[in-house]
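hey all, quick one before standup. I had two proteins in the batch that finished overnight and I want to keep them in one place so we stop losing track of which output belongs to which input. First protein below, input sequence then structure tokens straight from the run.
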Amino acid sequence: MTFKNILTAQEGHVATITINRPKQLNALNKETIEELHHALSAANDDENVGVVILTGAGEKSFVAGADIKEFADFSVEKGQELSAIGHEILFDFIEFMNKPVIAAINGFALGGGLELAMASHIRVASDNAKLGLPEVSLGVIPGYGGTQRLTQLVGSGKAFEMITTAGMIGAEEAKSWGLVNHVVSQEELMPLAEKIAHKIVQNSPNAIRAAIHAINANHIEGVDGFDVEIEEFGKCFGTPEFIEGTTAFIEKRKANFRK
């Protein structure tokens, strides 16, 4: 598939997807969301991909929100449909992928941009990053999972403050809140994301998939995460990767999970 709004690359087992709309500060429009879905879906199905790094073009912005011009005249029904489709094909899709997604936040991550980062499994930020959910200043609320994932990550008190004030916080404050894992300079951002990715791809792909499933179960209503962990733990024993991992440990060698 030919993309207009994103760039894709792969080095070894690490795929990088770059949102490439720098003149619009990489804002998410309908077409970009669809392209991201196709690229992420392909990476999720590709056995040669172990990790996805998601970032934005340039040094100013990861994603500076959604393209407001696209939905400024929407009705109630169209607004609900916009949110539901976005959840399904991008934000929830990322959260429940079999491969970890690392968001490399290189500047503004606002509105849908922060929601995209929060849907990712790991977040690293450049020291010039600014994060926020300013939707209430436009007469709407976050509609791509922001009210839920921000609360899960930082707690309801900080989520209430951040959403209702429509304010932005800097990268270091975001780190202190637990909203991002690491803060580095702009020059160090992609190397750090790649370093984390390379650590991940050395491990068992099946066990990583199982771990993502078990961790996500923690906040699914009506699901007991401990039960999911027990089930996934047991399933691992029936895989060739478990045999390779335990054999390598006993033989005092490095496991080779990607033969």
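OK second protein, same deal, sequence then tokens:
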Amino acid sequence: MTDFIRFFIPFYFIIFFMVSFVGISYKVAKRIGKNPNVLPKDDSAYGLVGFYFKLILFALLTYTMLLLFFPENVFPAFKIEMLEDDAVKYTGIIIMGLALIWVIIAQLQMKDSWRIGIDSTTKTELVTDGLFRLSRNPIFLGMTASLVGFFLVFSSVIAFSFLLIGSMLMQIQIRLEEEYLQQEHGQIYIDYKKKVKRMLNLY
């Protein structure tokens, strides 16, 4: 199991990043004629959130590469022994796999409205069907689930830190995006908020 985890985690996040960010962004960029990555690079509060997003992603990829190449040093470090159970690890693997599929489906359902960040220069369509009937933020939900799965597969204080910090940054980004969408779409978005929860509708 240890050897499987050593290879699974880094390759999972590489595939997650390459498919759900690079691949989808390239596909959308070809259709709309512009880069869908619109995270600001200025000194604003929103720019700082974008910077920390990139920083946490870089740290996560670095950590998983260390796990791959230096397992004897990384595996024992800051482990949470009470979660060292194969059933917990298999549950985490399943969650990570489902999260990746969920995120890709949600991104494809956004079509040309897919953006990384808030695009205030182009009016995009408000997507409310598909997975967006279950969650106002299915992509962030899937990303959070992937970090939960990662923590279950590799239960360490560092993995929990990625989950905690990543979730905090995503919740800030969600609220920034929701403020913009309400300004942009008005009553239509207000009505949508009343019907669909921020993260997940449980019927």
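Flagging for whoever picks this up: Residues 25 and 36 are 6 Å apart (CA to CA). The radius of gyration is 18 Å.
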